[in-house]
Specification:
With 154 residues, the chain is of the alpha/beta class. It has a single domain (6-152), classed as 3-Layer(aba) Sandwich (Rossmann fold), CATH 3.40.50. It has helices at residues 16-25, 27-30, 39-53, 73-82, 102-114, 123-130, 147-152; strands spanning 6-11, 34-38, 63-66, 88-92, 119-120. A five-stranded parallel beta sheet has the order 3-2-1-4-5. Helix 1 packs parallel to helix 3 (39-53) and helix 4 packs parallel to helix 5. The longest helix is centred in the N-terminal third of the chain and has 15 residues, at 39-53. The radius of gyration is 16 Å and the shape is globular. The relative contact order is 0.18.
Length: 154
């Protein structure tokens, strides 16, 4: 991983306000990285960053916006992880509400673990992650070699 990270931000409906508050608190750090967001979360994140940064909002700063989670955004993000296009995920998911795309959410969490990505599923973990000194410097990510597993199961 390079020193500028590609950070995915995802939030379920009941957690979007939590994400906005977190982004507003961490705006200065987030603007130093590349952001990828699903659906409405992307619009809310951009609005929060523009509001907090004001004149300090960098010209040309762009948030890559994927589809909404239920419309395939979680799967798009999973594909980006498999293609080594994401370095970290902040995913404020709602454990108290059923979601029509629960299987996609589970698949996203699984692929993040499979590729050894840091993933924060709540604000406390996101705070620890974003304040880590590793966020702003290159990091040699340790990947598990699954070739023996694949060969065994072919």
């Amino acid at each position: 991983m390079e020193s500028i990270k590609r950070i995915a931000l995802v939030a379920h409906d009941n957690r979007k306000q939590h994400m906005v508050e977190w982004v507003e608190y961490n705006w200065n750090t987030l603007l130093k990285h590349h952001l990828v967001c699903t659906g409405t979360t992307g619009r809310l994140v951009e609005e929060a960053l523009r509001h907090k940064a004001g004149d300090e909002y960098p010209a040309g700063f762009d948030i890559q916006r994927l589809k909404s989670g239920p419309l395939g955004g979680d799967q798009q993000l999973g594909a980006m992880i498999a293609d080594n296009e994401i370095d970290a995920i902040i995913f404020f998911w709602d454990p108290m509400s059923p979601h029509p795309h629960d299987v996609d959410v589970k698949a996203l969490l699984r692929i993040a673990v499979l590729y050894n990505l840091p993933i924060a599923c709540n604000r406390s973990t996101a705070d620890f992650m974003i304040s880590s000194p590793l966020l702003n410097k290159p990091y040699n990510q340790q990947l598990i070699d699954y070739s023996a597993y694949i060969e065994r199961n072919v």
